[in-house]
């Protein structure tokens, strides 16, 4: 990877690059982009940046919406999805000001950077290391309409059991619902495209651990990446989603990270593994602790569980998210922690035994989140737990070393659950967000804007008639 302007300019010359594409992240976590002719990438670009109007990116209004984008040179990568030879870069955003420009405090990458700075200021750790798992579906075709007189969705996926009677692209090797996990060829018809995705992700600087078919029989996949520093993995999450979607498009199919695109099938989560380091010392390891986790690790888990309900508004910010967080689909619904228990919100992998890999995973997030905000919010919740010594065992949150779904209704009633709707999560965020604003990490106006924005979406969707309502009520 190039690290200096001269190295990037040499790369441009050597590879015959014609355009340089800058990718910016909006408030929802989507990439937007603008391009300049390659010869215009100069010292002036790095000093003064590329100006743009930030008011169109969804952020809360500021006194000056004129902003500049400063490229991160080490992120430079050849974008193979562009016909014209193009070099792609992410970057940071600053507000134009005097005497000098200042970081835009709402910009997702800046929020993540500030969270890491706050962690260091607290003396807790020097590095946060994470490892997200990307679950997604690959479909042959998706059709939908949201016209007021014509609302429907229609999904075609030749792998699914419901396609066994299809006259087209039918090899007879369909997968039944919930039966996709680790299927082999020829049933696994998406093996080669997943391999291409992983190879392309490597070109984009994303270190892949492995890929495989997931539980959902209708075309669910998973690509898991290696552990790495939080800010890089936030960048990598954006790159991974870009690669997966574009590789699918190049194949003439489509990829979605929607948490629940199909009823009665497994949903798409984005489990996040995490651990902290202070110098070379792993903060979360204690040979004598429960699951070999230190008291700091338990306090960190305590913070996550204490704030889990409000955290969902950041880590699960879509109305569709709460159609995944239901019992019976390996998705967590109960606030608690356990060793190797996939029904708990926090799972401690038994296979991670060495001090430098000892960790736990938060299982409720999904990829509709803005990864910079989500990873920063996870860190802030954990730091709050350490600062206030929140012991999850004393709080009654576990360890739950049994299947939470197997409890009786009476026993389940004693447990605290995750929100069952986006509105419920937003209500929790309104009440519980001081842990996010600590140290100036999440600006209050950003949280207000997120709440208003997501409430608007939820309100709009709640007013729409649903096909199931026709089935249940049309003849009454």
Number of domains: 2
What's the mean pLDDT score? 92
Structural class: alpha+beta
Span from first to last CA? 65 Å
* Biggest sheet overview: 10 strands, mixed
- Low-confidence regions: none
- Find the count of extended strands (DSSP E, 2+ residues): 20
CATH class of the largest domain: Alpha Beta
CATH architecture of the largest domain: 2-Layer Sandwich
Secondary-structure blueprint:
Elements: H1 5-15, E1 19-25, E2 31-37, H2 43-48, E3 50-53, E4 66-71, E5 77-78, E6 86-89, E7 91-95, E8 102-103, H3 108-121, E9 127-139, E10 141-147, E11 150-156, H4 191-203, E12 208-213, E13 220-225, E14 228-229, H5 230-250, E15 254-256, E16 272-278, E17 281-282, H6 295-306, H7 308-315, H8 321-324, E18 334-339, E19 344-348, E20 360-362, H9 371-387, H10 409-412, H11 422-431, H12 434-437, H13 444-462, H14 467-473
Parallel strand pairs: 1-6, 18-19
Antiparallel strand pairs: 1-2, 3-4, 4-7, 5-6, 7-8, 9-13, 9-14, 9-15, 9-16, 10-11, 12-13, 16-17, 16-20, 19-20
Helix pairs in contact: 3-5, 3-9, 4-5, 5-9, 6-9, 7-9, 7-11, 11-13
């Amino acid at each position: 990877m190039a690290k200096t302007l001269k190295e990037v300019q040499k790369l441009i010359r050597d590879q015959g690059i014609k355009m340089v594409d800058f990718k910016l992240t909006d408030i929802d976590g989507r990439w937007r982009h603008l391009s300049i002719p390659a010869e215009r990438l100069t010292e002036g670009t790095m000093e003064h940046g590329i100006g743009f109007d930030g008011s169109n990116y969804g952020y809360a209004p500021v006194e000056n919406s004129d902003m500049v984008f400063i490229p991160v040179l080490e992120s430079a990568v050849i974008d193979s999805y562009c016909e014209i030879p193009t070099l792609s870069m992410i970057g940071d955003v600053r507000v134009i000001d005097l005497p000098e420009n200042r970081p835009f405090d709402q910009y997702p990458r800046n929020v993540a950077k500030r969270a890491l700075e706050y962690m260091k200021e607290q003396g807790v750790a020097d590095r946060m290391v994470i490892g997200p798992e990307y679950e997604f579906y690959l479909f042959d075709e998706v059709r939908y309409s949201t016209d007021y007189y014509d609302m429907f969705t229609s999904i075609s996926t030749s792998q699914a059991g419901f396609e066994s009677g299809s006259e087209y692209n039918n090899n007879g090797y369909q997968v039944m619902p919930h039966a996709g996990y680790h299927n082999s060829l020829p049933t696994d018809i998406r093996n080669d495209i997943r391999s291409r995705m992983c190879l392309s992700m490597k070109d984009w600087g994303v270190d892949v651990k492995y890929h495989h078919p997931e539980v959902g029989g209708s075309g669910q996949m998973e690509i898991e990446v290696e552990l790495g520093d939080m800010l890089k993995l936030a960048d990598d999450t954006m790159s991974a989603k870009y690669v997966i979607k574009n590789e699918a498009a190049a194949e003439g199919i489509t990829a979605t990270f929607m948490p629940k695109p199909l009823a009665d099938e497994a949903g798409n989560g984005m489990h996040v593994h995490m651990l902290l380091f202070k110098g070379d010392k792993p903060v979360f390891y204690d040979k004598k602790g429960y699951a070999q986790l230190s008291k700091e690790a338990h306090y960190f888990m305590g913070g996550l569980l204490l704030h889990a309900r409000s955290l969902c508004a950041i880590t699960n910010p879509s109305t569709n998210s709460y159609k995944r967080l239901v019992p019976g689909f390996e998705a967590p619904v109960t606030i608690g922690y356990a060793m190797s228990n996939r029904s708990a919100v926090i799972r401690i992998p038994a296979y991670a035994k060495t001090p430098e890999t000892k960790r736990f995973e938060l299982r409720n997030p999904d990829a509709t989140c803005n990864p910079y905000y989500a990873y920063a919010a996870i860190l802030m919740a954990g730091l709050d737990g350490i600062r206030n010594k929140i012991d999850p065992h004393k709080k009654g949150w576990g360890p739950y070393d049994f299947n939470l779904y197997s409890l009786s209704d009476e026993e389940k009633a004693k447990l605290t659950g995750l929100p069952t709707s986006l509105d419920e999560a937003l209500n929790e965020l309104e009440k519980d967000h001081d842990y996010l604003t600590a140290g100036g990490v999440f600006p209050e106006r950003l949280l207000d804007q997120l709440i208003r924005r997501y409430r608007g979406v939820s309100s709009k969707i709640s007013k729409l008639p649903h096909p199931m309502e026709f089935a249940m009520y049309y003849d009454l």
